[in-house]
């Protein structure tokens, strides 16, 4: 369907011809007639004038004078039909065929831009920032025994993931070595101590049992908290280096011990797989650590990055490389299995590991980490589909960079889905569609190191985003299991429910159950947003309601996912993760449907009641939200009715009211920003409701300021945060109850 445009020129020429007839010197009768005629004509002109400026929503489809817009149901149909498995597979194959570490692969940015343009996204540009980052140069880990003044080598760690014949990208010449993003340079030789998951509490347990980590290298497992915070706590306690390994005890029941074969022959963990990753202190602030709070444009002033990145070296290792170190500690220091249940989750008891704390006198490791720090361009690709309403923008985004050549799940399953959405939007545009609200597509660079591309872009455009952004929809891992997983601002929960209800679950469909939607199969848990992906700057820094979702949930019976490893490859995806690429297509549909509903419905599909209820105990906010949502829904019903064209004043009044409601929805979450931010060096985090946990990084805290003050037992601060929260809630409540 083509949009019907009223010629503006015709409108303008209309007026001058009428005006002379309205002069006072004309006869009374003709004057009265002229007045009536003039009234009618101005009425008509005003109607015509009003409609072109209020065209976003189809509301008078029978009149040829008004733009006829494609109904949402038709747009949704295009979104449901366009994404294809075979296409998603091709995109995935492209992205995962070569290395694309943050700031290292311009051709993938160009390629993404070209595809979006080819599909018909009207405005696409590459937006670049100069970011302080590091790249691996060399590394070494040796286990040594003191022998007089010298050392005897007991074990030389391989620090390498073996190339597999059946998995071509694991064997690339230019594959990326194992290392930690933002790790410090260093060459240390010291005794070492085992620290379980390296959480704040694990270190407390060690200290309370008399195990001192000062001057030692800390050896700990991945899991539970963001890896950078393990390094931070070790550094704070005086450790000189950190080694983090992947223990099969965290792989659930799919282990070699339980008889499963390891990748590439089966679903269990390859024992030489290594989890790369960033060791930035994520919960203290993401983005370029030398430009906190402002964009890394060429030539900007840069600051000391040390509050945000480690000063002690660290390396990620496989459990094969950890085994000799762990067994060397047997019988030395404390038997940590006695510290409690939480210390008994290790999966290597059968390999003669007793999980002793160490240190073992005279047994040391030599940890050498050499990285190169540079300031280098990172490339975001930003696509824009201008809508009728300029100051209500829906943003959807995914990052493109990966730790390895692969990245078939993280993040390029999302990138493949984003391309299929761009293609769907292109189809709609070809049929004459222009969205009611503006839609932005983002392909971020440098997410893995610390949400670099998205954070710098958000900081760069914060003024504009503050007044225009309605919501940000993030997909990082789009598909790696059949388990749908979502974290969201409750304002957006209805959108998630609606979209997941419309998409059939691919596995259930394959079994013949075509009525089972993703929603039906899903556990209905909407988690609290923390950090760990690109929504962070939107939600936690600017108060833009966000969603983070994907088929990336834990599947107890599914294959082990080789996170940030060479084995998160196209081959793994095709064989184990999402054979047939059905879940790639499912996430594209869900994501696209959400964007469409947000961009197209006259009343923004927010649920303030859900937000207020999620904050519990704040009664007047809940009741104000309920009233507001009810009014919004009443108005949505009114607007859905056919109002005759001549009744324009009623229509105008409704539209003005709709506009007021949408504005209030848009600014609602902004009421929860506290300009000074959180305490203790976490000032970048401005949201009083959402922030990553200070010592967890990934998982979200509700009322983080208050929580931290409570944890620290600082009652002055607790009272201060109660006042700050009360104030935000009062502002939000007042806004919602205010006149429309
Ligand atoms: C960028 O990625 C593509 C594949 O997606 C690959 O062919 C190319 O070699 C990579 N470029 C660099 C500089 O690594
Ligand atoms: C690291 O330190 C060890 C001993 O402290 C030394 O033997 C070795 O040469 C150093 N390595 C490098 C690359 O400097
Ligand atoms: C831990 O070891 C360091 C250095 O050996 C020492 O200075 C410190 O006092 C020790 N801490 C405790 C609690 O024993
Ligand atoms: C360590 O403690 C656990 C739990 O109490 C116990 O089962 C195990 O036998 C102990 N190991 C050694 C070597 O004493
Ligand atoms: C969303 O779902 C609700 C409840 O099922 C329904 O009333 C509403 O019409 C849906 N909205 C859209 C835009 O699909
Ligand atoms: C909004 O959220 C509330 C609380 O979760 C829920 O009861 C209500 O049904 C939601 N409204 C809509 C329109 O879905
Ligand atoms: C509590 O926090 C405030 C900052 O808000 C600080 O000035 C004060 O020293 C803290 N009190 C204690 C006992 O730590």
Automatic annotation (TrEMBL):
Transmembrane intervals: 33-54
CDD domains for this protein: M28_PSMA_like, PA_GCPII_like
Example of a GO MF term: carboxypeptidase activity
Residue ranges occupied by any Peptidase M28 domain in the UniProt entry: 380-570
One Pfam assignment: Peptidase_M28
Transferrin receptor-like dimerisation domain sequence ranges: 619-736
Annotated protein name in UniProt: Glutamate carboxypeptidase
Organism whose genome encodes this protein: Sphaerosporella brunnea
Lineage of source species: Eukaryota, Fungi, Dikarya, Ascomycota, Pezizomycotina
